């Protein structure tokens, strides 16, 4: 009981246990299933350790002293077969969920809705969200319709970061000169905390944002509000925005000129095509030269 208050100081983000999207729910289910399977071994071991210590205590005259005991087939079967079955179950579970929850795998759209595309650029120390379909952008605020699949393309204009909305699921890295992807959705309206999960310098603690899920009419109103901004995101304004700054307030860009995301990647690799990180299925077919190029990009 004395150690329970330390949980408040542990820095754990309990939001992952309150998922608000299909990916977050699947990941929570995976965690709980894996823990339960492992507890099948852990709990009996703890109980039997205490039971053996109590039964064979010095004051228990009923305990049988058997110094010549060296083997029991029954015990050997139990201590080997059960853990092996658990490891096998965990292996199958991990294999299936690794492919089912592949961040590059698009979500099944509800009612044939077209996914919302968002280009994410991690900067010092803020997040830039560009909506290429809508030609608008925002800083430290992300909006999405409830139930719609949001297709994120992610990169970094600085050091490596990690894009993470705990209640929606799947942390994924943002790396300079490379493109990663993740597909998320929110089932309920609300404001969800987003953050960088990878230390990136002095302003790291303030590198957070709000992911706001709203109904379609609310999202349309948000888009119109952003379009009402007179600020324009182009090469010059992006260069100014990318300078290091801390605790940056929410900012809207009513117009986006050019391919800011593609230009950011090209500024690292020196060419227009992006170094897109491959999904599990694509990695198996990658050739040696491509693999070496990917490593050099990292």
Automatic annotation (TrEMBL):
Topology in membrane: Multi-pass membrane protein
GO molecular function per UniProt: copper ion binding; cytochrome bo3 ubiquinol oxidase activity; cytochrome-c oxidase activity; oxidoreductase activity, acting on diphenols and related substances as donors, oxygen as acceptor
Superkingdom of source: Bacteria
Location(s) in or outside the cell: Cell membrane
Domain Cytochrome oxidase subunit II transmembrane region profile: start-end pairs: 8-105
Residues annotated as transmembrane: 31-56, 77-95
UniProt protein name: Ubiquinol oxidase subunit 2
Gene designation per UniProt: cyoA
InterPro entries: CcO_II, CcO_II-like_C, COX_ARM, Cupredoxin, CuRO_UO_II, Cyt_c_oxidase_su2_TM_dom, Cyt_c_oxidase_su2_TM_sf, Cyt_o_ubiquinol_oxidase_su2
SUPFAM superfamilies listed in its UniProt record: Cupredoxins (SSF49503), Cytochrome c oxidase subunit II-like, transmembrane region (SSF81464)
Signal recorded as keyword: yes
One BP term from GO: ATP synthesis coupled electron transport
Protein family: Belongs to the cytochrome c oxidase subunit 2 family.
């Amino acid at each position: 009981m004395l150690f329970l208050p330390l949980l408040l100081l542990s820095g754990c983000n309990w939001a992952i246990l309150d998922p608000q999207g299909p990916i977050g729910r699947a990941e929570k289910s995976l965690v709980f299933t894996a823990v339960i399977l492992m507890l099948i071994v852990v709990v009996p071991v703890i109980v039997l350790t205490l039971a053996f210590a109590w039964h064979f205590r010095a004051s228990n005259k009923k305990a049988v002293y058997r110094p010549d005991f060296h083997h029991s087939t029954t015990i050997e079967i139990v201590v080997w077969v059960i853990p092996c079955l658990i490891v096998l179950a965990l292996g199958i579970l991990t294999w299936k969920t690794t492919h089912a929850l592949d961040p590059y795998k698009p979500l099944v759209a509800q009612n044939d809705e077209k996914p919302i595309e968002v280009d994410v650029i991690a900067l010092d120390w803020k997040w830039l969200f560009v909506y290429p379909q809508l030609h608008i952008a925002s800083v430290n605020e992300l909006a999405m319709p409830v139930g719609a699949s949001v297709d994120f393309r992610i990169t970094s204009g600085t050091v490596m970061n990690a894009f993470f909305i705990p209640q929606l699921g799947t942390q994924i890295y943002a790396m300079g000169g490379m493109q990663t992807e993740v597909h998320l959705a929110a089932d309920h309206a609300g404001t969800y905390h987003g953050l960088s999960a990878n230390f990136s310098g002095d302003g790291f603690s303030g590198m957070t944002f709000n992911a706001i899920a709203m109904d379609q009419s609310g999202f349309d109103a948000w888009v119109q509000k952003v379009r009402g901004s007179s600020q324009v995101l182009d090469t010059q304004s992006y260069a100014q925005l990318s300078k290091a700054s801390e605790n940056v307030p929410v900012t809207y860009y009513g117009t986006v000129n050019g391919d800011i995301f593609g230009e950011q990647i090209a500024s690292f690799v020196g060419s227009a095509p992006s170094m897109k990180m491959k999904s599990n299925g694509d990695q198996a077919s990658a050739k040696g030269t491509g693999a070496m190029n990917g490593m050099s990009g990292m």
